[in-house]
Amino acid sequence: MAAVREGLSRGKTLVELFYDVVSPYSWLGFEVLCRYRSIWNIELRLRPAFLGGIMKETGNQPPAMVPQRASYMRKDMPRMAKYYHVPLQTPKDFFETVIKKGSLPAMRFVSAVDIAQPQFLEPVSRELWMRIWCRDEDILQPASILAAAEKAGVPLEQAKKLLEMSATPEVKNRLKTTTDEALKYGAFGMPSVVAHVNGEPQLFFGSDRLELLADTLGEKWLGPVPASAKL
């Protein structure tokens, strides 16, 4: 609630993006909202959460677990990558990388960044997406996480401290609390965008609902790559 009041006090509409780097569609939504952050009258708040927890609590299943949808996704993601101007590529072993391994260590690290070094939250999240969804690289091993943090601009010693911090109850509780908040808003997958309009939270699911978000905010939709913003 404090975050809502803070956003409103600045005359901007608070928009929260709940995301997990294991979700490719979260990456698309993340990049588009970051582009519109300086165009729309919004305060964008990035909310790293755990998709595995949301799926478990809601009884949802990854789209790729349905054979027909998995086949569709293999064709759809390249189209989406081109349309959104995001270098998204499907990992070679999708099931092993996304479904079996998941993202828990990575999202705990992102949560630690959010707590202790929030200025790095955006670039660290982006670099983890780049690893898993562009270069088909690991995001779970400590060395992989440190490499992502370093490439995102985090000094190595700070990154090591954040990695140690990611195993603490404080960070684990933060990730769980944020995930629970998303569930309370009605989230059942990611990305989940919550816009606080006239004091009421409104949930939008998926990267393909941002045009509807713009209409709800009373803002103009200028496509996924507005002229005044670049990836």
Task: Please state roughly what percent of the residues sit in beta strands, choosing from under 5%, 5-15%, 15-25%, 25-35%, 35-45% or over 45%.
Answer: 5-15%
Number of strands: 4
Q: Describe the global form.
A: globular
Biggest beta sheet attributes:
4 strands, mixed
Figure out the total of helices.
11
The helix content is 40-55%
Q: Spatial order of the strands in the main sheet?
A: 2-1-3-4
Order of helices and strands: HEHEHHHHHHHHEEH
Provide mean pLDDT, rounded: 92
Distance, first to last CA: 31 Å
Structural class: alpha+beta
Rg value: 17 Å
Low-confidence stretches: 1-7
Brief summary of the model shown:
With about 230 residues, this protein is α+β, with helices and mostly antiparallel strands.
What does this protein look like?
The protein has 231 residues and is an alpha+beta fold. It has 11 helices and 4 strands. The protein has helices at 2-9, 24-36, 51-58, 67-84, 94-100, 104-116, 121-133, 142-151, 156-165, 169-184, 210-217, and strands at 13-19, 42-48, 192-197, 200-205. Strands 2-1-3-4 form a 4-stranded mixed sheet, with helices on both faces. Helix 2 (24-36) packs parallel to helix 4 (67-84) and helix 3 crosses helix 10. It is globular, with a radius of gyration of 17 Å. The two termini are 31 Å apart. Residues 1-7 have low confidence and may be disordered.
